[in-house]
Amino acid sequence: MIRDITLGQYFPGSSAIHRLDARVKITSIFVYIVALFIVGNFVGFAVCAGAIGVVIAISKVPLSFILRGLKPIFIILFLTFTLNFFMNGWERAIFLVIRLVLLIIGSSVLTLTTKPISLTDGIESLLKPLKVFKVPAHELAMMMSIALRFIPTLLEETDRIMKAQMARGADFESGNIFKRAKSLIPILVPLFISAFRIAQDLAMAMEARCYKGGEKRTRLYAMKIEKADVFAIVCTTAFLGVVVATGILL
Question: Which of 52, 59, 152, 204 could join 17 via S-S bond, C-beta 3.0 to 4.6 A?
Fold first, then answer.
């Protein structure tokens, strides 16, 4: 189950989605997330699902690989549906589950088709206007990208620790859900130690390379808007218009 989490991973490729400017992809996903919270009927969700389906098809990222990322949160989705079914009715419960599923799929597509360094540069560029209000755009972008990049790293470390403990007789599979959750507690201590070690190694590597963020930092590849990016922006605007119209007319 640990290896099923795809959020934060990058899937190498040369598709049109991979080649899009990171700023355009980040903005488009933000619009997509807003649209998910605007819609309130099945037609609106169908439009959102169709839109992200087209993006996945163009990106050439296997759908099975993306859907695999939903396995670790199946219990959360089940509990969400159950609680909302008894509190708000079946329709509201289904809406919320669909919204969460599409939200996770959209976020996964962003990280799967965008290199970590491009994601950092894109976030920093979008946050630049906030520097007027003394917001540290570069530092925020760096922290967000490192946090995303650490997800697959920590998952690999967790899997390594679990295999090491299973070789020593630990059992993580048998028993009910509570017993299985309790059996994961011994993993937390070595995982925290490993996480701090990885963070320290990263900090030392950045210091050894005299890394300093800020205004004087240059980039090997400058970001620029191409025709494909303009077309993507037009498509995103049209998508938002369709979603709004769907909510008004239905």
Answer: 59
Is pLDDT at 69 greater than 70 in this prediction? yes
pLDDT digits (tens, 9 = 90+) for 47-68: 999 999 999 999 999 988 888 8
| CB 38 within 8 Å of CB 184 | no
Q: For 137-141, which contacts have Cβ atoms below 8 Å and span 24 or more sequence positions?
A: 138/213, 138/214, 138/217, 139/213
User: What pLDDT is attached to residue 56?
Assistant: 94
> 3-state DSSP call for residue 43?
helix
For 132, the token pair is: 């007027």
Cα separation, 68 vs 212, whole angstroms: 38
Distance CA 97, CA 171 (A): 31
- Is-contact 47 39, C-beta < 8 A? yes
**Residue, of 123 and 184, whose pLDDT is higher:** 123
- Count the neighbouring beta carbons within 10 Å of the beta carbon of residue 67: 16
List, in sequence order, the alpha helices (H) in the chain. Answer: 16-19, 22-38, 42-59, 63-68, 74-88, 90-112, 116-127, 137-167, 177-183, 185-208, 227-249
Whether 24 contacts 229, CB under 8 Å: yes
Other C-beta atoms lying within 10 Å of the C-beta of residue 218: 5
pLDDT of 27 > 70? The answer is: yes
DSSP code of residue 73: G
